[in-house]
């Protein structure tokens, strides 16, 4: 298949692009390198350094006539979306629509969109939710992801596209950068390498900190492979297991075979307490199930982190 991967120089998108190439597909990557890295690009794979909001990006889609557009390019920071909601919407809504509409006009059959289960559902009742749970976005980032989902739904209904929304849980693994507010696994591993104690944010109600559904990037890539020719609509992609921050820190230390002290700090405003996804629909319709539990995924990530 002829496929465009937007955000294909980033943490997840670059590994999706690589898996598509290895599966024999004809892949093109589009990325503005705002957070993606040149070193994540594959030799021999056409690369366009373009902003997804630009007319040139739409022209590329019009000229190439991709069968599938896999959309990973996005502004991914929740705090940045709070500080500058217009910038967030520019990329995450207008950028998506720019590629989606150009794809529709050029005859693209399928648009695969990386949404965020952690963000769009908002605060959860304390057990994993399935896709029937009503989204309650609690940040401009979550609103923009939800808007993208609704555009995909509209284009599927009105133009017959087989669009797929993958609502990821919290993704970790190879190539993740220790950003300030995302990527806690990458941050913890960085702390271990540097011998710098991490801070665990917690409250009286949540003495071990926030609970999240940590999902290994290899499983996320597998979902993107499955979505090439299976499924239509929205799918949760996670493990269904909620792990609190303190337990995660202990699991990271176990994977690394190292130990280090840690500090505690108060929870940050706006942090969701609990998030985990029920992924039974993806198992049935995409024939996808996560293959890595936390220990297995952390072991692979640590091996990559220390360059073995
Ligand atoms: N990492 C997670 O836990 C997680 C969870 C849910 C959803 N997602 C979604 O998965 C996707 C990939 O996230 P990631 O963690 O790999 O982040 P990332 O920052 O590594 O990847 C995003 C990529 O998009 C590119 N990009 C950003 N804005 C662009 C623009 N305007 N034009 C062209 N390229 C642009 C960046 O340079 C980068 O390469 C994002 O859509 C994100 O919202 C990630």
Arithmetic mean pLDDT:
96
Question: Which ions and ligands are bound to the chains?
Answer: nicotinamide-adenine-dinucleotide
Beta-strand segment tally: 13
Following the backbone from N to C, one meets helices and strands in this order, namely EHEEHEHHEHHEEHEEEHEEHEHH
Sheet-strand content, in percent, reads 15-25%
CATH superfamily of the largest domain: NAD(P)-binding Rossmann-like Domain
Could you please say which CATH topology of the largest domain applies here? Answer: Rossmann fold
CATH class of the largest domain equals: Alpha Beta
Total count of domains: 2
**Low-pLDDT residue spans:** none
| Overall 3D shape | globular
Helix content: 40-55%
Q: What structural category do the secondary elements indicate?
A: alpha/beta
What is the secondary structure topology, with strand pairs?
Layout: E1 2-6, H1 11-22, E2 26-31, E3 47-49, H2 55-64, E4 68-71, H3 78-83, H4 85-105, E5 110-116, H5 117-120, H6 140-159, E6 164-168, E7 170-172, H7 184-194, E8 199-202, E9 211-212, E10 214-216, H8 217-226, E11 233-237, E12 243-244, H9 245-256, E13 263-266, H10 280-285, H11 294-305
Parallel strand pairs: 1-2, 1-4, 2-3, 4-5, 5-6, 6-11, 7-10, 8-13
Antiparallel strand pairs: 9-12
Helix pairs in contact: 1-8, 2-4, 4-6, 7-9, 9-11
The structure holds nicotinamide-adenine-dinucleotide (NAD).
The site of nicotinamide-adenine-dinucleotide has 27 residues, from helix 1, helix 4, strand 5 and strand 7.
């Amino acid at each position: 298949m002829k496929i465009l991967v937007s955000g294909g120089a980033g943490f997840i998108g670059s590994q999706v692009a690589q898996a598509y190439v290895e599966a024999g597909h004809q892949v093109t990557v589009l990325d503005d390198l705002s957070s993606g890295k040149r070193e994540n690009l594959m030799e021999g794979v056409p690369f366009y350094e373009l902003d997804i909001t630009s007319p040139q990006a739409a022209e590329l889609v019009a000229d190439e006539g991709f069968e599938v557009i896999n959309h990973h390019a996005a502004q991914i920071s929740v705090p940045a979306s709070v500080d500058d909601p217009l910038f967030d919407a520019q990329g995450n809504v207008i950028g998506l629509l720019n590629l989606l509409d150009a794809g529709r006009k050029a005859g693209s059959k399928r648009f695969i969109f990386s949404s965020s289960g952690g963000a769009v559902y908002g605060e959860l009742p304390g057990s994993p939710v399935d896709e029937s749970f009503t989204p309650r976005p609690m940040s401009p980032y979550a609103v923009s992801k939800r808007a993208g989902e609704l555009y995909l739904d509209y284009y599927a209904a009105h133009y017959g596209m087989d669009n797929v929304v993958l609502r990821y849980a919290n993704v970790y693994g190879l190539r993740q950068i220790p950003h300030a507010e995302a990527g806690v696994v990458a941050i913890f591993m960085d702390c271990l390498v540097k011998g710098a104690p991490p801070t665990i944010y917690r409250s009286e109600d949540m003495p071990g900190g926030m609970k999240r559904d940590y999902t290994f990037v290899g499983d996320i890539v597998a979902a993107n492979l499955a979505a090439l020719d299976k499924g239509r609509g929205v799918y949760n992609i996670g493990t269904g297991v909620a792990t609190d921050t303190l337990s995660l820190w202990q699991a990271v230390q176990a994977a690394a075979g190292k130990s280090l002290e840690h500090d505690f700090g108060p929870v940050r405003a706006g942090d969701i307490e609990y998030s985990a996804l029920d992924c039974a629909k993806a198992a049935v319709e995409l024939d996808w199930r996560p293959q890595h539990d936390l220990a297995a995924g952390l072991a692979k990530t640590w091996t990559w982190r220390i360059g073995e």
